[in-house]
Amino acid sequence: MKMKNLLSGKMYWVQDDFNFDGLLEIKIGSKDSKKSYKDSEHITTKIENIVIDEFVIKFTTKPYKNIDGTPYSYSLNLTSLDKEFHYKGSAKSYADEETKIEVSCEIFDNKKKYILFGKWVEYDEVYTWWAIINKSNPSR
If residue 84 lies in a helix (H) or strand (E), which one and from where to where? Predict the structure, then answer.
């Protein structure tokens, strides 16, 4: 599953954990689906230097500015928990290298894309994050 080709993608965060417990579960028509997320923080940025294989997921985010205008960029390093779909690790902020950031996710893929979906904890704030990564393979 190791990708040596150039991958590209985008990452999204929402400041709410949506009861993430390690599994992607969507309850259509439930009361929770009508919850208001007006106070949530929504962030998106492109990602680069992506490595995905059966043991690790690594990438960096392109710099973006948060709500107060502070520029941020991260590098993620996740390792496989079960040699299948679950990964856990940490992220490093280039704006504040002292900050401890815990990251976990599940990976889903098809012929064209990877989808990463998981939990991000920074400054005791819980985020749900996901990334959509395009597989580019000119030989196909």
Answer: none
Dihedral angle, C-alpha 96, 42, 56, 52, nearest 10 °: -130
Domain boundaries, the chain: 7-23+39-127
Residue with tokens 């998981």: 118
Q: Which tens digit of pLDDT belongs to each residue from 117-137?
A: 999 999 888 889 999 999 974
Which region, left, alpha or beta, applies to residue 19 given φ > 0 means left and ψ of -120 to 50 means alpha?
A: left
Distances from the Cα of 73 to the Cα of 12, 37, 89, 90, angstroms:
13, 24, 17, 14
Q: Which residue has the tokens 């439930």?
A: 30
Q: pTM, whole model, 2 decimals? A: 0.75
The predicted-structure confidence for 56-103, as pLDDT tens digits, reads as follows 999 999 998 877 788 889 999 999 988 679 999 999 998 888 889 999
Encoded tokens for 130: 């996901």
R_g over Cα of the chain: 15
